[in-house]
Amino acid sequence: MGKTYKIAVMGGDGTGPEVVAEGVKVLKTAAKKFGFGLELTDIDYGGERYLRTGEVLPANAVEVLSGFDAIFLGAIGHPDVKPGILEKGILLHLRFALDQYVNLRPVILYPGVDTPLKGKGPEQIDFVVVRENTEGLYAGAGGVLKKGTPDEVAIQESINTRKGVERCIRFAFEYARKRNKRKKLTLCGKTNVLTYAFDLWERTFYEVAKEYPDITPDYAHVDATTMWMVKNPEWFDVIVTDNLFGDIITDLGAMIQGGMGIAAGGNINPQGVSMFEPIGGSAPKYTGKNVINPLAAIGAGQMMMDHLGETQAAVAIEAAIKSVVATKLKSLSAGKMGYSTTEVGDLVAGSI
Ligand code: IPM
Ligand code: MN
User: Fold this and answer.
1) What is the mean pLDDT of residues 54-80?
2) Quick one: CA torsion of 65, 83, 129, 310, rounded to 10 degrees?
3) Which CATH architecture has domain 4-114+258-351?
4) What values do phi and psi take at 220, rounded to 5?
5) What are the distances in angstroms from CA 208 to CA 172, 221, 238, 264, 269?
6) Which listed ligand is nearest to 265 at the C-alpha?
7) From the CA of 4, how far away is ligand 1's center (Å)?
8) What would the pLDDT profile of 308-319 be if each residue is shown by its tens digit?
9) Whose CA is nearest to atom 8 of ligand 1?
10) How far apart are CA 24 and CA 276, in angstroms?
11) To test the ligand 1 pocket, which listed residue (76, 133, 247, 260) has its Cβ within 8 A of the most ligand atoms?
12) How far is the CA of 279 from the centre of ligand 2 (A)?
């Protein structure tokens, strides 16, 4: 028997628990096959708990989660809770408090999956976005004056620190090297307008690039990036960008890789506790119907195994996902897969 990993399982809201259950099913199968252990602990942070207790997170939440090897998250967002409370109070709070400074989001089109991009296939859509995950416009800096009056002033500032920018860029260069595909790293920014923030990003990027002569550094403005992602996605290998730009371009990325049903991500702290999640929301209207696609959550589980060093398990899970989408599923959309949520989980687990 190999190592045993302590995993916090946070199903969260809406369809989160259903998709995470299928992820857990697949992880258990992989653990048995590849000889490692899983010590799974359910954690109930989310909208239901908030409505019941009135607290978004218990005071010791970060301490509790710090005791795990990784966190497996479903989704945060509840229809009966005002938008923003849970997202900021749970998801963003944990990303920040656990210093998960990279949000890693692969945009990979698997064979047999439909993309809305005409003439593009798996050869052309295969890149990874490294999104800065603790700073930028998400940092919460700013304020409001004279609220509700005609003189109201709202200020929201983008925080970019040399340390924060550099560690994210270094992660991206290392990742491009390890990925070993096109060996190209594109900085996605807005140097023509955001002349303070992206000047820091650009200088740091080209300084660090000198330490990676095997990786070609490249630059694209964020608006142009969205254009190239649609027109020439094959130009990208690894993209590094700030928090908000990364948020926006990865929703576009999810669409070109087949939709939210398949898009997974990892909130990474290379020295700490990382958190893996499907990047779509809680999709409350599908809750309890057994129709949501669990593949994004299963893919998040795969990323978690890769992160923990169980490479064989990660490779096997990815191969199983690929084979199920190529040979079984009619569509990746909720209710149109030709199988239920639990059946898709069974199919993936069965092909490991
Ligand atoms: C994401 C989500 C979150 C974000 C929201 C729910 C706060 O859109 O993970 O991309 O903006 O980061
Ligand atoms: Mn988003």
Assistant:
1) 97
2) 30
3) 3-Layer(aba) Sandwich (3.40)
4) -145, 140
5) 10, 19, 15, 28, 20
6) 1
7) 30
8) 999 999 999 999
9) 247
10) 12
11) 247
12) 7
